[in-house]
Amino acid sequence: MRKNFFSAGLLVGAALLPVGVFGWAWDAAYRHDAEAVGVGSKYGHGKEEISLAASEKIGNGTLSFGLEGRILDDSSAVNRVAAHVDCAWDVAENWHLSVGYQPMRYFRCPVGIKMQGNEVHASLCRRNGLSLNGEVSYNFDEEDFGLYFSATRSAGLASIGLDCFSIRSVFSFGYDHCAKPGGVPDFFQKNAPGDRCGFFYYGVDGDLVYKLPSLPGSLFVGCRYAGNSASRSNWNNALGNHRNLLWAVLGGALQF
Question: pTM for this one?
Answer without folding.
Answer: 0.86
